[in-house]
Amino acid sequence: MQSIKWLTLIFAAVCLVVVAGVFNSHHLYYMAAILLTLPGVSYLIGMVMLRGLIFKRILPAQGWVGEEGEFRYLAENRSRFPRFFLTANELLPSWIEFVDLEPGMFNVSPMGSTEVVVPVRFLRRGVFQNTHFQMSALDPLGVFAFTRKAPCSGELVIYPTPRKIRILPSSGTDKYGFQDLISLIMHGNSVDPDGVRRYMPGDPLRRIHWRQTARTGKLSVIEFEETQAVNFIILLDTKKISGVRSGTDAAFECAVSVAASILQQVIDIGAGVRLLASEDKYSLSAISGRGRQHLHMLLDTLARVQPVSELRVSEKLSRETGYIQPATTLLIILTGYDPELPQVLAAYAAAGSKIAVLMIDSDGFRGVSPLGKNTNQKEIHSELLAVGAHIFLVKQRIENEIFLEEPVYEDS
What we know:
20 strands, Immunoglobulin-like, elongated, 4 domains, 412 residues, alpha/beta, four-stranded antiparallel β-sheet, Rossmann fold
């Protein structure tokens, strides 16, 4: 754009000189000289546009994957002259993008201030930090651009958004939602009747109260009092994957989303939760807790975690879990197979713990296999089932929705 403006000015000046020579109009030479002088004057004006200004940046308190936020840039003018044609810009990581491709221009009045709101979109979880951003100013002709770096501080944490999780029906079972998974792996029978209510779409057919249905002519279901012991330890596989394979990053991000979804679900039912996702066993996320504040702390851990661990899941479980109460449920999210895991889980199962293993399905992410090379999926599942673990394959078929499927094999 600037080169086009330069060409336009030069072409106009040449035309004036040619016309002056053909028609012997000497005053056109002065006009051509003035035209060529304008860029120099405009350049001098543009040089002072950023002087006397103080800039600040304000980050949003937090962000969520898939949502939008606002970066606020504040320009304060301490001079008696206005400032024009200013823009704010900042180098962002690939997982944060500006909603508007072209930054909007703004002006600052003498001895005044202006706040500019720039909308951004969060594409992935993570932690954003920058030490500076850029403020630019154009000269009145828009030929020259002047840039100044403004120091800034602050941290923006983008949390993984809990996503919809559905359990796919398999082997004649009647699974209607994620609550069935929680009921499956929680301790206790929850068989204390707590009343009868009207049937709602999604209620299991096994809970229909047939007498009440026959008497009223409307479907009714039995409600049960929740009597389970709800204590969870959720372990996210953060083992570093050697080499670069397509789909690896997407598979780990899916595992993080599953962890966030489960955390919100179990916190909502009042469970005590302990998350093992980092290498620091003294981290606050490794402490069992309840409530929304604890959930916020766990999501902060998930926003920062990366697959860089040197430990396999079995090693992490042995080193960092230690003794757990017998009524505690272990829920493990695997991004790669660990041959030592069944043996370690056997000890916890013998102590009275319930175990659920969620494995990233290789079909959902091209180039990623949770089983590793030269392994048989049926044998691996058999080893886990032998220690009493419930197994679910994590499938991602629709954006923002995750499916869990129980593996079923035909008898050979």
